[in-house]
Amino acid sequence: MSWLEIFILIISGMLVGFINTLAGGGTVISLSALMMLGLPANMANGTNRIAVLIQTITSVSIFRHHHMLDTKKGIRLGIPVIVGSILGAEGATRIPAPVFENVIGVVILTMAAFVIYKPQQWVHGNIHLQQKKTGVLKYLMFFALGLYGGFLHVGIGYFLLAALVLGTGYDLVKANAVKVLIVLMYAPFTLLVFILNDEVHYQYGLLLGAGGFLGAFIASKLSVKKSAGFIRWVMVAVIILFSAHLFGLIDFHFEL
User: Fold this and answer.
1) Residue 77 lies in a domain
2) Using one digit for the tens of pLDDT, what is the confidence trace for 131-185?
3) Helical residues (DSSP H) of 23-70, grouped into ranges
4) pLDDT tens digit sequence for 195-214
5) Cβ(20)–Cβ(55) under 8 Å?
6) Distance from C-alpha of 109 to C-alpha of 239, rounded to nearest angstrom
7) Is 255 part of a structural domain of the chain?
8) Dihedral (CA of 150, 129, 240, 226) sign
9) Which residues have a Cβ under 8 Å from the Cβ of 248 and sit 6 or more positions away?
10) CB under 8 Å to 29, separation ≥6 — which residues?
11) Is 31 exposed, middle or buried (0-12, 13-18, 19+ CB in 10 A)?
């Protein structure tokens, strides 16, 4: 392995860890880097799960230290996500996912409109929704999110944030903390599925994870210090760039 490969993986990991902790969608960078280095799409998808696991361990630890994490509710919501993610990851080892990209782009742009034009709930949350009992439909929604997270993972942070803010009433800072806990819960299971299917490059994954640790550490500290309004605008910026990539307006792929 060359020093250039090591540099690309660590820097990509830092960017992804930072973006995914504050918003989501950073995985498109790591997948692009892994495929640029010669991994096929399925193996890049599996290898990336090592970095996801490392960066979420980092973020969850910091959020817990600052008492910003609703662990009890996060675990309850994470259980259906785990079940869905295992099924989604198993499907990802067999099925290509080109159609998903345009669908995700439309959904994410719609979400951007909500974030921009209906900011109050994202910033202040909804106490009534937070206290409301979690029903069957909500568990089914998180199961569906798990299916997608296990299948591709790209953009899952947006969907989880939307579900947690608009569906359960958290403000964006608290939703961010619960989001990374849920991802941490399902990440080991999806990684195991890819390992069992021989679709993980351990060296690349660990280097990407080292960068992800640094990026997640910085972003978690920043999230604790900054307001929900700051995170909202980071989220909007990343959503626009990510959607532009999905629709082919910007190409994040690059070659050595």
Assistant:
1) yes
2) 567 778 889 999 999 998 888 777 788 788 888 887 888 877 788 889 999 999 9
3) 27-36, 41-65
4) 999 999 999 999 999 999 99
5) yes
6) 7
7) no
8) negative
9) none
10) 12, 15, 16, 19, 252
11) buried
Full residue range of the structural domain in which residue 219 is found: 3-246
Q: How many residues does the chain have?
A: 256
Instruction: Kindly state whether residue 251 falls inside one of the protein's structural domains.
Output: no
Predicted TM-score of the model (pTM): 0.78
The contacts of residue 56 (CB under 8 Å, 6+ apart) are: 180, 181, 183, 184, 187, 216
What three-state secondary structure class fits 182?
Answer: helix
Residue 94 domain-assigned? Answer: yes
Helix (H) or strand (E) holding 113: helix 98-117
Q: What tokens does 140 get?
A: 């089914």
Tokens of 69: 């994490």
Domain count, the chain: 1
Q: Cα–Cα–Cα angle for 111, 73, 228, nearest 5°?
A: 45
User: Distance (Å, rounded) from C-alpha 144 to C-alpha 170?
Assistant: 20
- Give the 3-state secondary structure percentages of the chain, helix then strand then coil, rounded to 5: 80, 0, 20
CB of 82 within 8 A of CB of 185? Answer: yes
- The continuous run of DSSP H or E covering 120 comes out as helix 119-124
End-to-end CA distance of the chain: 14
Q: Residue 144 and residue 106: Cα distance in Å, rounded? A: 18
Cβ contact 39:196 at 8 Å: no
Q: Which pair of structure tokens corresponds to residue 255?
A: 């070659």
Residue 233's φ and ψ, nearest 5 degrees, are: -75, -30
| The dihedral sign for the CA sequence 179, 76, 94, 200 | positive
